[in-house]
Input
Amino acid sequence: MRSTRSCSRAPKSSERGYALISALVLAILYFAMVELLLLDSARELAEARRFRARIVAETLAENGAELAALNIVTTEKSEATAEDWQGTTVGRMARNTDGSFDIEAEGKTSGLEESKTKVLVRGRVVGGDVRVQYTVHTH
Output
């Protein structure tokens, strides 16, 4: 004989509502976490761009100082400029009658993130020897 009790395995309507709400809350939390990750990665990318631009500007300024000092022993004044896809560099060297010299150079990056750096080198030429007394880098 069959039992008159019904054994239904289908969830009740209140259980279905709970599952739907749980799924929606989890989806919202998931998308919020993804958005936070995207914001953080955008911030890190901008910071990396600024750091790279600063390093490239320093390198360009140092290259400008080296170009200006190319013939420091034999020349009293020189100026050098150069430009490539990373930026521009300008360097000026002046040597005094007492053998002291000043080299000023500037590097400026091009691209998404621009940066500018200056280099100052002071020293003395004694005979054929070049002696750097100090250097200053400024951003």
Q: What stands out?
A: Helices lie at 13-68. The longest strand covers residues 116-126. The chain is about 40% helix and 35% strand.
